[in-house]
Design brief:
The chain has 181 residues and is α/β, with parallel strands linked by helices. It has a single domain, classed as fumarase. It is 21% helix and 27% strand. The chain is built from five helices and seven strands. The protein has a five-stranded mixed barrel. The radius of gyration is 16 Å and the shape is globular.
Length: 181
């Protein structure tokens, strides 16, 4: 059964989700890849304000392609999440509640997810054109000099997600203690 999750997010929303849950999310997500993460972390390290409030937000590890005529956005599939792992704990500390990407996370990120009661979602890799169909609006927020790696504010409707790491640190990627068949 697909669980429906709507913006704005709350800690109660994320606490109710379990590893493996399928979610249809409607609301706001911010895109950010490696270079945007580096800049956000640097601003936080210097005690500077961020261009958007991280509290209770979700970041999608995505660098969307430009929109074709008549389209809201181009292809917008997930990128490999591990590249953001060095920056993730500090963003979670400042209130980030969810992340969307693909692939495993480092033990330090799993510990930070558990500590800050956040969620890591995955979505369908290799399906960027299909995922663009769920985006109803896209606006550049900051770092436009980064092109596709700029931060965009996306409004999405029933965006398909799977809980890969829940607030308790349970992970789809954790195979310890499981027999191979």
């Amino acid at each position: 059964m697909v669980k429906v999750l709507e913006y704005p997010l709350t800690k109660q929303d994320t606490a109710a989700l379990r590893c493996g849950d399928e979610v249809a999310f409607s609301g706001i997500v911010y895109t950010a890849r490696d270079q945007a993460h580096k800049r956000l972390a640097a601003l936080l390290e210097r005690g500077k304000p961020l261009p958007f409030d991280l509290r209770n937000q979700m970041i999608y590890y995505c660098g969307p392609n430009p929109a074709a005529p008549g389209r809201v956005i181009g292809s917008c599939g997930p990128t490999t999440s591990q590249r953001m792992d060095v920056f993730t704990p500090v963003l979670l500390k400042h209130g980030l509640l969810g992340m969307i990407g693909k692939g495993e996370r480092s033990p330090a990120v799993v510990a930070a997810i558990k500590q800050y009661r956040a969620i890591y979602y995955i979505t369908h890799a290799g399906c960027g054109a299909l995922l663009s169909e769920y985006v109803t609006k896209a606006d550049n927020v900051c770092f436009s000099d980064l092109g596709a790696e700029a931060v965009f504010r996306l409004e999405v409707k029933q965006f398909p997600l799977i809980v890969a790491i829940d607030t308790e640190g349970r992970s789809l990627y954790d195979t310890r203690g499981k027999k191979k068949t």
